[in-house]
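pls ignore typos typing on phone
beta-D-glucopyranose + seq
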Amino acid sequence: MRRFLGWMVLAGLILAGPAASWVLAQAKPAVPIKGEERFKKMDFGKTKEGVAVDEYTLTNGKMTAKVITYGAILRELIVPDRSGKPGDVVLGFDTLEGYLAGHPYFGATTGRVANRIAKGKFTLDGVDYKLAVNNGPNSLHGGLKGFDKVVWKAENVSGSKGAAVKLSYVSKDGEEGYPGNLTVSVTYTVTPENELKIDYTATTDKATPVNLTNHSYFNLAGGGSILGHELMLDSELYTPVDADLIPTGGVDSVSGTPLDFTRSTPIGARLGELKGEPKGYDHNFVLRGAPGVLKPAATVRDSASGRVLEMFTTEPAVQLYTANFLDGKLKGKGGVVYQPHQAFCLEAQHYPDSVHHDQFPSTILRPGSTYTQTTIYKFSAK
Ligand code: BGC
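k done
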């Protein structure tokens, strides 16, 4: 009888496959993971120009991130729920073709300047610059071919702080209209504390605006709408915008508005009170605390899965975007058709259109200085 039970358990394990072994892995006492097991490189296809793209898998044994060299995109993020069941908490595609066909920055590293620059032009040190325009009259997330559409070089920089990949890219003087050769790096680390840590650096040989962020579309339930997720933002202020989402230049209080997330509130609770169409959040929130210092930015909870996301950043602000422009036409991972409000983005950033507003924290990087940015997305389940 005992032997029969043993065979039944073995057969069950083989049939249930990877899910069961993952659950078992959760149940096992922590075993140190060897270097080669927590970092893996795989071929992820070729761009239309024939450039090879790789995918890097980073894991701490509980949480796993997959990052591709095209767009320095976070393609997959597997996080356990409260019962230890793993689930992918970011939107994206199964293949490179999905990304090449065009998408609204799923998981991408956006730059040289994330968010909008009004009319796609600015003046710096007395020189006028004209940028590639890709969002009505404005430039959005770096222009027509931003950092989300180039192939980055990758390097294994795993160490005692976790499994890590460093992606580098040199953006040429004049690329998308921006001045200066800009050398950029973004390092993704999966730490033993269940954090996805993203560190950026950039240096230039001519003064240029720089604003880098990660544009992941999170869904802590692994699917469906995020309007029931509860959000707390460490922000009492936001930058009001015009109809094209360009800041008016002011900084207003969130108090008494549907933008007040100082207390944890379901994301969808006050959607109807928001102005503009399609309905949803697409706002820049000014964070408490000093820019340049790592500080709490947001906490999001999904009561169904128990997953909790805590965000920390050195940036002065965060764009909350609730995937308002997803229109039920894009087919993502596993053939799932992405619907409006199927995800939320928390994009750490300098204020949009800072080049036109001297009262906003400056986005100008000058030769001899190094741009740095750190953002942490930390996961737990309760
Ligand atoms: C912007 C949205 C835009 C989205 C996808 C967000 O950062 O604020 O307006 O639609 O990115 O491009």
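Residues 1-29 have pLDDT under 50 and may be disordered. The longest strand covers residues 371-381. more later
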